[in-house]
Write a sequence for this structure.
């Protein structure tokens, strides 16, 4: 707050009302509703609901299917996060180094940021298609009979590849801006002390990038968990069947297709706890974040 | 970095011909491969869209160029599809623009207003309001899908622009971004304004908004792209085809292609291209603003 603030009593309230009322109506109310209905079992024919205590949660905990989905979500998140971070870091380091064409590379490597996940998923659908897809053909050279939407691992591979393709640009932008904010003097000192490029990277550049990398780690986990909904929905064509899906997609399917209100709400609450944990983790990291510059 | 390597090379006894620097070559090779991975899917999709659907079905996606681009583009823009026949590429394009612009403008207005109230007023519950706004980060749409949908149904806002846009415009990101910027505006400005007798409204409109122009532009670009690319929310609450956005329409294209002998590949690809063109153009042309907005708002 500014020292010399205005003292108008009603104007700030008026200014805050739009934001706060949207938050209450469309954030708090639904969240509270989800928590409440996670303790109820909805009658499938719409005749009221009965309080069942924690039954929805115990049902989740013992469900083989839910465990399978959770397991897939974890592996998927790890793969997407680390592949897209690693590849983006490599590209950012190179883009920061070259002189000729630096701007062109930057543009070419970041524009995919603007592509919506379902559009990326649609392209994936065509490229991994069984009859027309060039990537399927490519896999067949190696004797891999790739069948999108039929084979569990095949669909999972396509999901990871599309999600990584879509996420590299964001990481690239942040890594590049992190690299470019390393002061010249530090780079030059490192250059004099250490001739080997690789060692210089691990000893000097990488630690200096660590704050950016931690921040991106959280961003990427959130992306894999939530924002890839569009990728998954398009790749399974809205009908998951036996295909792998993530936790968020299961909330959607159970809630809207399965009409399992209590179960879907319990899953929502589990995800809320997950987001809360991620946020706490992020803040702990931010607190400890070391600034060298 | 590169300057130094060069100066080292030039101080060394100069050889007749410049030796090839394999390090630099491999840097470029990696960047070119990366750029190709990013751009080739689009190039192949575009060349494929110039072919007749029958040929695509037989031979797959390819670099070959045919003469169907006009037809496919026309089909994408004007062909009526869906059960009602009310949905064309053009109607979806309009809806996408309404969503993208409404989303961005809404977030900026709501965020700026809240940030202004928090930074420039002596408010007893200012910090409290700030924390309430912060908690929205803990409740992404994906964790409250079903109840949010029920709320919108209860309010009778399905298939309306209000229902499409308003629930999405509460924004911790925009509020923090403007709060950060307002805090960096020199204190003397508001003091001077007050001495000159300017009230809070006049100060905001005549001084703060003009000062924030680049911030607003950067935020607009990011939020427009973000809004345009919304998928889950439009999928839930627009069931009427005339309300579809392009990104929402992707779902329809995929369903249209299911179980058909020869799917309309060309039209589908052109619609997908149309769905990505405006945000991509904005990101490419306003690159520096976009990067600034992105890296400064998230940190």
């Amino acid at each position: 707050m500014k020292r010399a603030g205005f003292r108008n009593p009603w104007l700030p309230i008026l200014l805050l009302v739009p934001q706060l009322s949207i938050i209450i109506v469309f954030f708090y109310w639904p969240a509270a509703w989800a928590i409440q209905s996670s303790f109820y079992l909805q009658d499938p024919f719409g005749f009221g609901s009965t309080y069942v205590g924690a039954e929805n949660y115990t049902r989740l905990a013992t469900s083989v299917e839910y465990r399978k989905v959770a397991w897939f979500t974890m592996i998927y998140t790890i793969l997407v996060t680390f592949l897209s971070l690693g590849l983006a870091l490599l590209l950012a380091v190179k883009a920061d180094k070259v002189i000729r064409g630096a701007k062109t590379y930057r543009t070419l490597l970041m524009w995919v940021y603007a592509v919506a996940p379902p559009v990326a998923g649609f392209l994936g659908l065509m490229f991994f298609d069984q009859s027309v897809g060039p990537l399927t053909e490519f896999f067949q050279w190696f004797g891999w009979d790739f069948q999108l939407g039929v084979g569990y691992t095949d669909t999972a591979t396509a999901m990871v590849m599309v999600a990584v393709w879509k996420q590299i640009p964001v990481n690239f932008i942040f890594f590049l801006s992190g690299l470019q904010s390393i002061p010249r003097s530090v780079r030059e000192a490192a250059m004099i002390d250490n001739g080997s490029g690789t060692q210089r990277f691990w000893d000097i550049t990488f630690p200096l990038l660590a704050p950016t990398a931690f921040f991106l780690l959280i961003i990427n986990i959130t992306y894999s968990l939530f924002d890839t909904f569009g990728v998954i929905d398009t790749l399974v064509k809205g009908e998951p069947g036996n295909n792998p899906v993530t936790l968020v997609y299961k909330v959607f399917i159970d809630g809207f297709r399965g009409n399992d209100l209590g179960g879907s709400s319990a899953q929502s609450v589990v995800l809320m706890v997950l987001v809360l944990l991620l946020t706490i983790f992020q803040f702990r990291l931010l607190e400890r974040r070391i600034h060298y510059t | 970095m590169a300057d130094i390597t060069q100066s080292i090379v030039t101080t060394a006894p100069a050889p007749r011909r410049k030796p090839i620097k394999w390090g630099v070559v491999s840097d470029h090779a990696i960047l070119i491969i990366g750029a190709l991975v990013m751009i080739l899917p689009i190039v192949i999709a575009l060349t494929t869209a110039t072919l007749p659907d029958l040929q695509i079905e037989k031979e797959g996606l390819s670099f070959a160029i045919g003469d169907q681009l006009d037809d496919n583009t026309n089909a994408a823009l004007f062909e009526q599809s869906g059960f009602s026949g009310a949905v064309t590429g053009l109607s979806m394009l309009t809806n996408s623009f309404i969503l993208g612009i409404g989303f961005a403008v809404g977030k900026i207005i709501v965020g700026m207003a809240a940030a202004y109230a928090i930074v420039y007023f002596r408010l007893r519950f200012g910090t409290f309001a700030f924390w309430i706004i912060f908690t929205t980060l803990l409740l992404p749409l994906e964790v409250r899908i079903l109840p949010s949908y029920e709320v919108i149904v209860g309010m009778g806002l399905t298939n309306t622009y209000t229902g499409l846009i308003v629930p999405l415009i509460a924004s911790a990101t925009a509020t923090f971004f403007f709060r950060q910027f307002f805090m960096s505006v020199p204190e003397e400005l508001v003091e001077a304004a007050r001495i000159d007798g300017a009230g809070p409204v006049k100060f905001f409109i005549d001084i703060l908004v003009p000062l924030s122009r680049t911030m607003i532009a950067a935020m607009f670009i990011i939020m427009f792209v973000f809004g345009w690319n919304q998928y889950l929310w439009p999928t839930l609450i627009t069931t009427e085809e005339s309300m579809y956005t392009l990104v929402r329409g992707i779902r329809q294209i995929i369903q249209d292609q299911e179980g058909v002998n020869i799917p309309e590949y060309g039209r589908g690809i052109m619609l997908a291209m149309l769905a990505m063109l405006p945000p991509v153009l904005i990101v490419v042309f306003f690159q520096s603003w976009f990067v600034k907005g992105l890296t400064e708002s998230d940190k």
In short: Chain A touches chain B through 101 residues (CB under 8 Å).
